[in-house]
Amino acid sequence: MWIVAIYDRIAARDEASAWYRFHMRQALWFGALSALIGLVALLWPLVSSIGIGSIRVTLWIYGFASLLDLALFVLWVVLALRYSQRASRGELFDVPWVARITRRWSAPH
Q: Which of 8, 21, 27, 59 is the most buried (most CB within 10 A)?
């Protein structure tokens, strides 16, 4: 849903409710931060294996990274489905880690 939130951010609907705008903003941040975390999860094995000369150690790093990537993907899907179900019931809620990060960035200086 976060891709739709990008479009909604570019071409905002004037008639949209505050609930809709709030959840679209949450979806945008959830998706963008999840994509960033996913990119880091995919890149860390490459970066960590650059200086390693042993193929065996490199394979262990990539094996471990694959398990972590799978766990991260399952967690992301579970969270996305949970938040989607809550929003479909009309709840107004914060995504905890998104709210923590966005409040820190949007706090007055």
A: 27
- Which residue in this structure is represented by tokens 């809550």? 86
Number of H helices, E strands in the chain: 4, 0
DSSP letter for 35, please. Answer: H
What digits encode the pLDDT tens for the residues 19-52?
Answer: 777 778 888 888 888 889 889 998 999 888 888 8
Instruction: Copy the structure tokens of residue 65.
Output: 């990274």
Q: What is the DSSP string of 46-88?
A: HHHHTT---HHHHHHHHHHHHHHHHHHHHHHHHHHHHHHHHHH
26: amino acid identity, one letter: Q
Q: Where are the chain's structural domains?
A: 2-94
Kindly report the number of other CB atoms within 10 A of residue 19's CB atom. Answer: 12
Q: How far apart are CA 49 and CA 52, in angstroms?
A: 5
The candidate with the shortest Cα–Cα distance to 87, out of 17, 27, 12, 9, is 27
